[in-house]
Each structure stands twice: as C-alpha cells, then as structure tokens.
Amino acid sequence: MTMFILSKLSRAVLTILLALAFAFFLMRIAGDPALAFLGVDATPEAVAIFREKFGLDQPLPVQFLYYMANLAHGDFGVSLREGRPVIVVVSEVVPKTLQLMGLGFGLAMLIGLPAGILAAVYRGQFIDRLVMVGSVIGFSLPNFLLGLMLLLIFTLWLRLLPSGGADTAVSFIMPTVTLATAFIGVVSRYTRSSMIGVLNRPFLRAARARGLPASTVLWRHALPNAAIPIVTVTGLMFGGLLGGASVIETVFAWPGMGRLLVTSVLSSDLPVIQFIVILLVITMIFTNFAVDVLYRILDPRIGHRGSMPVAGSAR
Amino acid sequence: MSAYEQAMGSRSDRDGPGCIRLRSDAQPEPPLLCIEDYSVSFDTPAGRTVAIEDINLEIDRGQTYAFVGESGSGKTVTCLGLVRLLNGKHATSGSIWFDGVNLCDIPVRALDEIRGRRIGVIFQDAVGSLDPIRTVGSHFAATIRRNTGRRGPDASRHAVELLAEVGLDDGAVLAKYPHELSGGMAQRVAIALALVGDPELIIADEPTTALDAANKVRILNLLRRLCTQRNAALIFVTHDLLAAAKLCDHVAVFYAGRIVEVAQLDVGFSKLRHPYSIALLRSVPRLVGDPAPRPIPGEMPSFADRDALCRFRDRCEYSVERCRTVAPGPDRFRRMHVQCHFPVNTTFGTAVPETADLSRSVKFPATAPSSNAPVVELRNVGKIFGGKRLNPFAADNRHVALTGIDLAIGRGECVALIGESGSGKSTIGRIILGLDQPTTGTVKYNFAANDGGPRKTTRQYPVQIIFQDARSALDPRLNIGQQIEEPLRVNHLGTAHMRRKRVAEMLDLVHLSPSFATALPHELSGGQLQRVEIARALVMNPSLLVCDEPTSALDVSIQAQIINLLMHLKQSLELSLLFITHDIAAARPLADRIAVLRQGALVEIGETERILRQARHPYTQELITLTAYENLAASGDHQMPPEPRQAVSRRQQYQDISA
C-alpha cells in the first residue's frame, strides 16, 4: 500500500507541473496579457510600466522559473485585476463552489442510484422505461438551457425563487437542481446497466438458495459488486461538475470559483487563472486517487493481481 | 393437505398402459417430497416453450435420487423450480409437496424460511456461486445468522465445524476470497454453506461437472457420506450415469422435458429398462470391453418439436409403428416406472466390477505405434511463465509449468495427454502449436508435403487446434460457412468457388448437412458446434490436430459422437492427434498411446491398453482407480485419494507439528 501511494504521489506531482506549464505558456502565447488587461488603447508607457511591474518583460522561460520559485515559497502572486494576493481572492469564492458541488453531487447520488437500482430490478417494466426516458432527457438537456428555463418558470412566472446570488437557503435550489440533473441521468443509467450485469450472476441465485431474503441479497451482494463501474463514472463526473459549475454560476450569478475563472480569463488575470488551474488539477488527481483506493476496498482481487499464481489460468 | 391426500389416493386410478410399477402403494410415512404434474414453460421471443411437462416423482427421507439427462432434458429446470429459483419469465403448473407444504403456493417469505434451512442447494459453478468480493467467512456469517440465529464466535465455531465436516480442516479458508480457492475447495465451501441449516433435502446441480476426475470422486464421496450421516435426501443432477451410480440409490432419467424412467440403482444398472437409459449408458466411454463408445444417433428434439408421443422414437433402435402413433402411458407414477411401450428386458450393466476385470479382459490394440518419423518431437521441453519484472520491488512471480518433456507423435498416431487441471497439459498443446515458446528444449516438426489441400498452398498450416468450448471459439456473428472458409480466405487460397466447394466437403466430412453453411452459431447445438470447429481445423488439411478437452463440455451421447468422428477422421485422413483430457476413459477409444502428466512432468507414457492394464507409476494407477466406476457406497471418505498438493503438504505439516 505504501508503494502504491508513493507511486501515485510522484505521478501526481508530475501531472500538476505539466498542467501548470501548459496553462502558463498558453495564456502568454495566446496574446499579450498587458494589452488584454489594459485595453488596446493604452499608452506604450503604461504598458511598459505594467509589464515591468508584473515581470512580463522577461523572456517566457525566465518568467516561468520565477513563478516556480515563488510557488516554492508559497507565493501564488497577486491578482492583476484586484491587486490583492491570489490566494485571498480565490479562497473567498471556493467555499461557495464547494457547497454547490457538494449539494449537486449529493442530489445526483440520492436520486440517480435508487432510480438505477429500481430500473434494473424491474427491468423491462414501466418503472424501468420511466427512469430511462428521464435519464436521456436529463443528460441531453444543456445545463445552461435548463437553468434559463428554471429561471423563467420559478422566478419570472411563479416568483417563488430568487434569480441569483447565494444569500439565502432557497437560492441554492435552482443551481443545485440544474447542476445535478445531467448527472442524475448518467448515474442512473450506469447504475442500471451495472446492476443488470450483476443480477444475472450465479452467486445471487446461490445466496437466495441459502435462504437470504431478496432485499438482503440486493444490498449485501448485488450492490457492492455493481459499485465498481459506478465509482468509475462518479470519479469522471467530478471533472464535469467543475465545468458545469462555471456555466451555472454565470447563469445564476453565483459568487463562486467558476464565475471567477470566467471573469479572470476574459480579463487575462494570469495569476488567478494559474492558481485555479492548480486547484482543478489537484481536485482531479485527488478524485482519481480516491477512486483507486475505493476500487481496492470494493474489490479484493485488484490488489492481489500481481501476486496471483499462474496455475489457475492453465485450465 | 386435502388436495395432497386426494392426489395420493387417486394415484392408482391413473395407471396407464406401458407403465410398470415396481413398488406397492403401502407407505408408512408420507414422502418428503412429492412432485405432482409439475410443468414449467418459459416465455421467449419465439413464443411459449415448454421446458418440462408433467413431472411426477416422490422422494422419501434419506433417499438419494440422481436426475440424469442430457442438456435441455429439463433436469436442472425441475430442480430450480423446486425451490422457485428459475430466472426469466416463466409459468408453472402442478404442485410440489415438501413435507406437507405446497412450495408452489406459499409466499416468497415462507419460502425463504425453507430454502437454506430445510432444502440446501449446491450449484455447478462453485466459484461463481460465491460472491467474489466477500470472504468465505462472510458468506458463512450471513448464512448462519439467517438460518440458525447464531452470531459472533458461536457462528464461527459452527462454520469451522462445517468446514471440517467437508474436509477443510484449515481454518484459514474462512479468511480467503473465492478467487483464492481451487475448484475442489470452492465446491467444498459451497457444500458446507448448504449444510448450515441442516437441510432434510440437498439438491446438487451438477456439482462435479467442472472438476477433474480426482476432485470429482472426492466430492461424490463427500456427498454420499454427508447424506448418510445426516439422513438427508439428495437430488443429484448429472449427465453422467456412472457418477449417478456411485452416489445414488435411485435414478430418474430425463429426456426432452419428461421423466422417461425411474429406477433403483442398488444393483448397478440392471434395473434400467428404457431404451434411452440403456443407450445413454452405452455411450459412456469405459475402461473395459469395447473401447468405442456407442453414440446415440441424432439429437434431442428441440422445444418446438416435442409432442405427446414418445420423444425418443426417432433415435430409438427398438422403435416400431406403435411408437409413432400412440403415446406411451402418462407419466403419473411417482415411484418406479418406465415410460415406454416396449421396455427393454435386459441385464445390461449387471456385471460392472470394472476394476476386477481390468487385468483380464483387455487385449492389446492391433495398431502398433508408428515406426516412421514422428510428425512432431519435443525434446527436453521446459516452460517457465513470468520472470523478473521491470519493477525491482515486485515479487518474483515465476511459475514452472513444464520440465523435461520428451514426447513424439507419429504419423497417424493419437497420443492422449492425461492430467489434472493445472498439470500443464494445455501448455504442451500451445507449445506444439507455436503459440508459446518453450523456455528450454526444442520442438522439431517433420511434415510431409501437403497434397490434399486446395492448390496454391504458399504456406502450410500443418498443426491445428480444436478447443473445449466450441461456442466461444466461434465468432457469434459469422455464419458457419464463413467461419470454415476463413482460414482459406485470409491466406488467399483458391477462388471463391473452390473455397465454397471445400466448405461443403468439410461439412460432409463431419457429418453435417450443407445447409448448416448459412446458419449462425447460436442456432446450433453444442455437439454440432464442436463438429464445426473440427471442420474449421481440418479445412487447412493439417497433419496434426491438437484437441484440447474437446468433449469434456458435452453430454455423454454427444461426446461419444465426437469421439467416433475423431476416430474415423484419424483413420481416413491419417491424421495425428494430441488428445488433451483429464478423463482417461474418454481417451481410451482414440489413443494409441497415453502420456500421463503431473505437475508439469511426464510420469508415464505407453500404449493405451498397457497403461490401463499394468500402469507402473502410482499416480497413473490412482487415476485409473478414480475413473473405474465401482459403487462407492461402502467405501468411506477415509479411502479418499490424496488431496491436492498444497493441502497435503499443509496437513502433513500440521500433523508433524502435532505429533
């Protein structure tokens, strides 16, 4: 297990470095950040001062080395737009995004898992068709469209829910539902197909033959075996949740990291973008790591594979 | 209860012609299980198919019944129907009385109280019937808590006792996962799990089919002993009549969804009277007498072709006009009966003390091993799998599969390679095919010019293989003709017309009608698929055919057909064969020589009849003893052959320590 964690960790550091270098150079190659920030009608003097202040007059590799050196000291730079340390700017908005993601993820699991299980158990019957139709609608509907529709219905017509912001508990409802809808569709569909695969396995019939009731067999044997593909999809979903959050935060004027990323990209606020990229990469790496660990917990065969004797395979 | 008594009382009214009853109605105790007019039909896209029809049977406490039949005969459907574990959309009729309760009527909750506690079920695929992500101990914990209410240390004590009872003394089994168990160990665990509730009826659905000869006998012995000790009734589902005779005192023979005969097995097979039962018995390869098994011609009628008349009539050597016009007596007898107009009056099978006969009755074969240059010659071949990995921290996973193999196969000769699973016999096949390279030693081929094949032979493919599982060895989306033609097509041999002609020739060679060329694999039966595989292997006109357990997945009657086909092909095409199997009896009709493989080394090689008559190596003698079918009723579990090697060494260590 130590070897497993060490090798994962070394790969993670490499991944972060590569992603960071990619974001760093791409943003600077794509256009002159000084002009993008100050506007095309800025005086050459102002541009020169701006460049010198933020070290943009140096050659790119030198800039990168400086940036890395600062990172090593825990200095993530200063936001070009706000003049405050990046870490402060970003940490103000991170909790709001985490709340939205957590709620959206929770809702997707809470509805998607039982819906998929029900569909698998009542395969081919009305409830199965209902879940499948719902899931197709769910993941084929673009989330910004869904968000705008919800706004139209609940804010403009019914006047029940606030249009944006994150001030009250009710303002969570529409962003969460919008974010979760697509993932409910994905989770229910994968849960269904994974469960159907497991429900045909002989050990379920054997468990029934030992007198275990249907519900026990479902929870004890079917679901844990079906969980592995579901965990895989859930891990992949996390990246999608972050992307979805950017769109939804813009639609609902949610003061979160997704919206900050969008405004920073539009205004070429390089240090903020780089820091958010680091955060995103770390999130994805952590998710993948969590998925790998979960695999090992869920399926005892995964950790053993390297040391299995060959004898059994001769048959 | 009234319906039950009524049914019991009215039984004598139902006597029909053609049925012979061998036992009186006087029964002091009601039977444990009484199946009445039980039918199951499945809803399929093609419509309703009747899987079993009007099954009637009575089983008393402590009686052991074998359900014998080919696949599709309905024996497994009957068993699963008993405990209502049938999958798929189906409808049942009739009733199943278990100790006064109709299992067909009671709610599922009440059935859950009976399953596991009063009826234990053991399945064919033992490893598959255990949850792969839970330990053996976890299976026991849940089952014991559910069926006895015991938990904690009390439950673990119970589990250890049960495991000891099935011959797994090592408590470490509880901590293992199913994939860490061998097939034999997994089946023992499954048996122990079925015993948790101390059931009055044990249903064992082909529990030994997936096991090799040695493990099979051990499991049969174990089941026999357990049923005797616990006075439990047993239903043993099998397609192997000889195994049935080892274990059971009664047999119900299933054919095409009906029970055609119920008989006692107390004196061998002497009481079998239905032509099908006898044909089935003759199709089993044995170690004495006529080496060639006698196949039953044709195949079992499909679901659509089953009518009220005798369903065996088209394959029956005794059938007359009456069989085609009048249905045999209705199957309403729950004790001994034969469902046939003309039950065979024979004493076939009375004399089956095979081990005793073995030394006298056997004659040496006329064909001596060929003296000409061998087609393939293995010299000192060894094979090691795995090796040092790039990662220096990974454990060394080397596994010695073969050591010092010297083997030659002559032209037109068949060498049978016998060994248990894991002995390395398939690896030898793969090395001869060139799919694996030997780690040490050499493989020398010596093929004659290939003259019979299609012209323009740029490359020769003198070695071909047929696999055990024909269904997965064939592409499900290509039709049979395309699959047989494929080796020619990919090698650009002949024109399209020539290739089609060759395919027709090949189908004819394996006794399939040319119309099969356009069929898809799922439309064919197991035996037909195996013929297709043989045709595909022979289309390149090979000199040597490697047969990797080609018959072990087939029913006995079909197995006999395939063995006879291979015998015929070997003679007519002067084909050399390497016949890989764990069943020494199946190898006997075909093999000129037998090579016995154990743990990657050849322990004995010699002419077939010499090996059978006077095996020199103790391991060979043991294999022959295992295959020879004496009734093991008297012999206890203590005369069991040794356990697999790991278990032996562990047990010896234990004994050494405790001594």
The proportion of residues forming helix of chain B, as a percent range, comes to 25-40%
CATH architecture of the largest domain in chain A: Orthogonal Bundle
Tell me the overall shape of chain B.
Answer: globular
CATH superfamily caption of the largest domain in chain A: MetI-like
Instruction: Determine the CATH topology of the domain at 2-130 and 181-354 in chain B.
Output: Rossmann fold
Short description:
The complex is a heterodimer of chains A (315) and B (659). Chain A is 76% helix and 0% strand. Chain A is built from 13 helices and no strands.
Structural description of this entry:
The complex is a heterodimer of chains A (315) and B (659). In chain A, 76% of the residues lie in helices and 0% in strands. Chain A is an all-alpha fold and 315 residues long. Chain A has 2 domains: 7-72, no CATH class; 86-301, MetI-like fold (Orthogonal Bundle), CATH 1.10.3720. Chain A is flat and about 85 Å long. Chain A starts with a helix and ends in an 11-residue tail after the last helix. By secondary structure, chain B is α/β, with parallel strands linked by helices. Chain B has a domain at 2-130 and 181-354: P-loop containing nucleotide triphosphate hydrolases (Rossmann fold, 3-Layer(aba) Sandwich), CATH 3.40.50. Helices cover 31% and strands 20% of the residues of chain B. Chain B is built from 21 helices and 20 strands. In chain B, β4 (90-98) and β5 form a beta hairpin. In chain B, α5 packs across α6 and α16 runs parallel beside α17 (556-573). The longest helix of chain B has 18 residues, at 213-230. At the A-B interface, α9, α10 and α13 of A face α3, α4, α6 and α12 of B.
